[in-house]
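ok posting inputs for the flavin-adenine dinucleotide job
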Amino acid sequence: MSGATQADILIAGSGATGLLAALLLARRGRRAILAGPAPGDGDRRTTALMLPALAILEELGLLDRLKPVSAPLRRMRIIDGTGRLIRAPTVTFNAGEIGAEHFGLNIPNGELNAALAAAVAAEPAIDWRRTTVTGWRIEADGAHAALAEGGTICAGLVIAADGRNSPAREAAGIRLLARSHRQAALVVNFAHEREHAHTSTEFHTETGPFTQVPLPGRRSSLVWVVRPETAQALAALDDAALSRRIEDRMQSMLGRVAVEPGRQVYPLGSMLAERFARDRVALVGEAAHVFPPIGAQGLNLGIRDVRDIVDAICAHGVVDTILADYDRRRRPDVLSRAGAVDLLNRSLLSGMLPAQMLRGVGLGLIGGVPPLRGLVMREGLQPGSGLSGLVSGLRKKVRR
Ligand SMILES: Cc1cc2nc3c(=O)[nH]c(=O)nc-3n(C[C@H](O)[C@H](O)[C@H](O)COP(=O)(O)OP(=O)(O)OC[C@H]3O[C@@H](n4cnc5c(N)ncnc54)[C@H](O)[C@@H]3O)c2cc1C
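and the output
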């Protein structure tokens, strides 16, 4: 197409994954165009990012700015808060058990996005067009993206970081497996009377998890997964009533609770792309996979997508080879996480006795068998490291 700006790489979408992809590529010496609006300051969520994701933020020089506004996660506890006949035992994961100081940091999304956006804006190798893509055409000579601000970009390769409704994914003809569980998340931050001791507590309930995650000081963030109509009803409560409901649900383990302004409701669902790359387009983040917020998987996985597409770009020169390599790298990680989250979520929602027994036995084994607990913790941080950790632990025992 005449008049189009030519680019080797176009990144569509300027959420956390799009900004990270642009930055990582730039730090590896690659130029890219990034198309997406500057992030707003309306996202009240916080994100628990685990050690491998933090290593990438460190590599980009962003961690020092984020540490003071974030809280380390030293312990993660799962409590069966269902009133069901068969209840799973409480399981506590301690970072110290796998020789780590903490599992990760709970970072406010507003702070994370602002730090990423400032770093991208300061990077000369990134041409950031603060606009949206209004139309796509994938042709033999490149992927053509029409911009809302005017003009077209013709790119050899597109990193689609344009979220769950990804127009770039649609243009590449990649189909989705989607499932709705009729769940929504109420998100709110709150102050509390007692110390949280850097412990996150996930209560499993019949409608989904209720997850408290520490913030600096005597403050925590909450993601409360319930039916969509319950989320709206909770969000409409006055501060005192909502604070009481949260304190009751937590069995007063943090003492008196006082919610902070700015509650939000997020509709939830599961979506999985049938493949992660095709026709010049590689999917990262929620363009590739969307999960309910159980076990802090979403953005951690999205950051591993970004790492793998950048590695594939740096390893190969030919677009088709890059895409094939990326798809192959992402399959085991994404499919295993999607399966585990879906299984856990469905075992909560299911009133069937066998599902409850399975969950009870599974969590019982994890809680009662330290090597298995170590495996789950390592695997939660870094795919593939759980089994190798278990094997080396067993080797040491055999030697002794
Ligand atoms: C309640 C809740 C709690 C969560 N907690 C955690 C957690 O603790 N840990 C964790 O790892 N994950 C968590 N997640 C998941 C995490 O929030 C997501 O994985 C992450 O936000 C996805 O980022 P993304 O960049 O892929 O997509 P998005 O943040 O959706 O970004 C997409 C971007 O694309 C842009 N865009 C869309 N269309 C276009 C277009 N046509 N042209 C250009 N740009 C476009 C949008 O403006 C947006 O900026 C949570 C999710 C929820 C709902």
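notes: The domain at 5-60+109-179+270-343 is CATH 3.50.50.60 (FAD/NAD(P)-binding domain). The pocket of flavin-adenine dinucleotide is lined by residues 12-18, 35-37, 45, 47-48, 132-133, 161-163, 167, 185, 187, 223, 266, 285-286, 293, 296-300, 302 (CB under 6 Å).
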